[in-house]
Specification:
260 residues; eight-stranded parallel beta barrel; two-stranded antiparallel ribbon; 10 helices
């Protein structure tokens, strides 16, 4: 199976951090340095998540994106954080992002989220959805208020799928914990035609390969565990794997594709 591996850089006050449940943070260093590491490791995509922007109504962190894009990385960049409207989204693309990811805007102003997809094309948009499991029921989660919102309804994503290319399911209960992504979170999507990115508690090659047996999963995203060891990527990728080139769902070709 040809699948994608996404490296996530979580940013807080312009510093890359290790996030644990989106509640506790440990500093890692400069985001642009980590982005250069991810680029050398030939991941399929780099996702920059600035967790301060939406919470404080600051808009996107254009300065940070420009700093990373100026490194002339060969890996596609995706940006998430503080995106309010189509103008913000277009400016992010102009500053060097290949794609954008949206979470809270689909809740707070769905029309603006739709306008972004109309402006950029749905292939350039990822819809991110944090979730939590309580007594075997799955709820959407608002990371800004740190509270559950509604019981998860797959129809909500199905009816809006014309406005995003992939749905990123974020396991907020296990984010930051080793080998702990809850596969039960994927069960409601079993009969859907959505392409899903898994994020939160993913840390080993065996776990990734197991997740990729699910036909709906197009990618997994890893943040903390790529920076946990000095050369953690060697545990996930072998040299013959990173030499492969493949087609993706949002572009013609990308280096770093792997057969899982």
């Amino acid at each position: 199976m040809l699948k994608r591996l996404i490296g996530v850089i979580t940013v807080h006050n312009n510093w890359a951090i290790q996030s644990i449940g989106f509640k506790n943070y440990l500093p890692l260093g400069k985001p642009e340095v980590i982005a250069e590491n991810y680029d050398r490791w030939q991941l399929d995509e780099i996702l920059i998540v600035d967790i301060n922007r939406s919470k404080n109504n600051l808009g996107p962190n254009f300065e940070l994106l420009n700093k990373i894009a100026s490194k002339k990385l060969s890996t596609p960049l995706c940006y998430m954080g503080g995106i309010r409207n189509a103008e913000d989204a277009i400016n992010l693309i102009n500053q060097g992002a290949d794609r954008i990811a949206i979470d809270s805007l689909f809740r707070s102003n769905e029309k603006n989220a739709f306008k972004i997809a109309d402006a950029l094309g749905r292939q350039a948009v990822i819809r991110a959805q944090p979730v939590t499991m309580i007594k075997n029921k799955i709820f959407t989660y608002n990371h800004l208020t740190r509270k559950k919102v509604n019981e998860l309804d797959v129809n909500d994503f199905q009816t809006t799928r014309d406005y995003f290319s992939e749905l990123m399911i974020i396991d907020t209960d296990n984010e930051g914990n080793f080998n702990s992504f809850n596969k039960k979170l994927l069960k409601p999507f079993k009969d859907s035609n959505l392409q899903i990115i898994c994020f939160g508690g993913i840390s080993s090659k065996k776990q990734i390969s197991n997740l990729f047996t699910n036909k709906n999963i197009s990618a997994v995203a890893i943040g903390n565990f790529l920076s946990y060891k000095e050369i953690p990527h060697k545990d996930l990728l072998t040299q013959n794997e990173v030499d492969v080139v493949r087609k993706t769902s949002f572009g013609k070709t990308t280096k770093g594709a792997r057969e899982w």
